[in-house]
Amino acid sequence: MKEEVFQKGKYTARLSRSGADMRAAQALRYRAFIDPDGVGLDQDRFDALCQHVLIEDNAGALVAAYRLQAFESGAQIARSYAAQFYDLARLAAYGGRMLEMGRFCIRPGLRDPEILRTAWAMMTRIVDATGVELMFGCSSFPGTDPRAHLAGFAMLRKRFLAPARWAPGRKAAHLFVFDDELGATASLRAVPPLLRTYLAMGGWVSDHAVVDHELGTLHVFTGLEVRAVPAPRARALRAAAKTTPPPSIL
What we know:
Number of helices: 5
Radius of gyration: 17 Å
Oligomer: single chain
Shape: globular
Helix content: 25-40%
């Protein structure tokens, strides 16, 4: 991906330019995922393979970040971060370009919805510029106790499970399967905001959540085919991102 900078209101999203940028993202991730008051770096071997997106306010302070790893087709998906936790054999047959989004985080204490809008505008620009056909990643729920998220998991099971041809299989040692024990209460409001955004665009999830003790979260595999995004939502995203769709999806 070429260098890209995008400004929306009081926030600017840009691609990382240096190791210092990557470390800034890792430091923010540490606060978001591990210790909101601590100082450290959340890092792994995938950071060197990814392009990092930083979102800064007008004062230059980092308010959000995420990372991206591109794949020419599903034949390369075994190299993804998500493949550590999910059996992605079905998605290996996907023929189009893919983009894995991960480690999305916002600085603890910030509640401005414009940050998420800026993040999605930047993502829209990248997807259109590179011809991505499918986005995927691991969407996190806070904590490792599934009982805290039963209403959200019930909603995912009821309306948003992956189509059979792409459905991720079970691979992780510690997981929570969305079965009949979830109960009758299903609530979309119990689903984290980032995942709700994916679902509103036509996204789908695995039939189970992985328990990630390292980051203290539960996560579900999430996929989104670009062509499945409803036309009104696609137009709104591109208007916010000031971009146009590539000829292949006009």
